[in-house]
Amino acid sequence: MILVTTEYISGRELETLGLVKGSTIQTVNVAHDIGASLKTLIGGELKRYNEMMADARDIATQRMIEEAQQMGADAIVDVRYTTSSIMQSAAEVMVYGTAVKYR
Fold it and tell me: Which of 3.40.850.10, 3.30.190.30, 3.30.110.70, 3.30.160.100 would CATH assign to domain 2-102?
């Protein structure tokens, strides 16, 4: 499955199938959260949170791809990601785009 952030795929005529999306809500465990709180005092990268967000993006993307495959799509164009905080230490990642079929 080809995923692009553009409205087109070079050299291809596209037929629009519709909106597809995927999302997940992820959190880190309490021990990592306490460690991250302490890290904010001295500064630096919160590696466990980076890992959590990367995992969340991967899960959400896979769910979007599965939805597109069920529609018979060859690709997804206009792919966009968004995040929101659900509660302390929990974030939602949503990805959406337009499923298309090659003509």
Answer: 3.30.110.70
The encoded tokens of residue 70 equal 């069920």
| pLDDT tens sequence across 60-99 | 999 999 999 999 999 999 999 999 988 877 889 999 999 9
Question: Over the stretch 43-56, which tens digit does the pLDDT of each residue have?
Answer: 677 788 888 899 99
Nearest to 103 by CA among 79, 78, 73: 73
Cβ contacts of residue 51 below 8 Å, gap of 6+?
A: none
Distance CA 70, CA 76 (A): 13
> Cβ distance 55 to 24 under 8 Å?
no
Q: What are the domain boundaries of the chain?
A: 2-102
